[in-house]
Amino acid sequence: MRLPGLLYRLYGRVIAKDLPPEKLPHHIGMMVDGNRRWAKLAGAPTAHGHQAGADNIIEFLGWCDEFGIRTVTLYMLSTDNMNRSSDELQQLMGIIANMLDRLGEKPNLRIQPVGALELLPEYLSDKLCSLGESTKDATGLHVNVAVGYGGRREIVDAVKELLRDEGRAGKSAEQIADELDIEDVSRYLYTRGQPDPDLVIRTSGEQRLSGFLTWQSAYSEFYFCEALWPDFRKVDFLRALRDFADRQRRFGS
């Protein structure tokens, strides 16, 4: 084993030992950013970066399970990313499909699709729905897979569904508007029934949300990491948990 690897393992154990379990997040939003830049720096095809990123997701979920995180939302493909070249999208969606097969083999994971599935190829949307149905009763780590996801679109979809339901109940537009409150919208989000994320992590050094969990992240803590996603290590994750545990959370102004 190389010395730096050994040192990082020892350093990680020190951090993990001092993490107070009661101060760890229950729900983590993970923005897996930097696959394309990682591939470019490596002089490799873009698909190689996406595959390395998918491999790291499997590792990451294992770390979350180890530290008792109950819910993870993975931001894998935004609605804006749907404008990329057809070749890259085809390769990326194939990699996501293979990753879903690997997740389906993991015991007790609950997989839930989060996004506009109608934007995806039929084989991928069918796979997401099938996996969501077959794992819906699992009691382990709850993994939201955000593919074809956009925060603004999620809110619009939520409001549309709410209006349809209320309209079918015989309510007028004025009555719906008068009675509408925050919890009404929350009940129609893709993540309905789940706790909002306590912590949102983004890799690659970018410091913006890019439409990720726009509604749900109102009181989330944010952690931005310089590492590109395929290079994101367990020690980087532990640093994010330590940073979160050290913060004094405030809900409001």
Automatic annotation (TrEMBL):
Family per record: Belongs to the UPP synthase family. Z-FPP synthase subfamily.
Write the Enzyme Commission number(s) for this entry: 2.5.1.-
Q: Does the keyword NADP apply?
A: no
| Role | Catalyzes the condensation of isopentenyl diphosphate (IPP) with allylic pyrophosphates generating different type of terpenoids.
Task: Please tell me where substrate binds in this chain.
Answer: G34, N35, R36, R37, W38, H50, S78, T79, D80, R84, R202, R208, L209, S210
Q: Does the keyword Magnesium apply?
A: yes
| InterPro entries, A to Z | UPP_synth-like, UPP_synth-like_CS, UPP_synth-like_sf
Active site residues of this protein: D33, N81 (proton acceptor)
EC class, as a word, reads transferase
Q: Kindly state which keywords UniProt assigns to this record, in alphabetical order.
A: Magnesium, Metal-binding, Transferase
What is the protein name given in its UniProt record? Isoprenyl transferase
The annotation note on the cofactor reads:
Binds 2 magnesium ions per subunit.
What is the protein's quaternary organization?
A: Homodimer.
Task: Enumerate the residues binding Mg(2+).
Answer: D33, E221
Q: What does the record give under GO molecular function?
A: transferase activity
Q: Which PROSITE patterns match?
A: UPP_SYNTHASE
Which coenzyme or cofactor does it need? Mg(2+)
- Taking the record's annotation, the residue ranges forming a coiled coil are none
